[in-house]
Specification:
- This protein is of the alpha+beta class.
- The protein has helices at 31-38, 42-50, 73-87, and strands spanning 28-29, 56-59, 68-72.
- A three-stranded antiparallel β-sheet has the order 1-3-2.
Length: 88
Amino acid sequence: MNTTEHAVITVPPIGGAVRPSQHIDPEFVDCKGLEAGWGIKRSLAYQLISEGRIKSLSLRRRGRLRGKRLFDVSSVRQFLREQIEAGK
């Protein structure tokens, strides 16, 4: 290749990315996922955590005060099932 030639790399278009053939059911979601999936906003989520009604964990680096809060999807589903049963 001389100095005027350029290598060409073929990249699939953005919309042509390979996607999984099936829906991935996450075990954990962040605040945005909690609201998108079940309509539970951050303030209610933290209230439910403090009452022990749903489970969560905080991922953070050693020595850091802030991290990423993740919510256990199975505990959210269980909480919602309990709400349905209580309403019967």
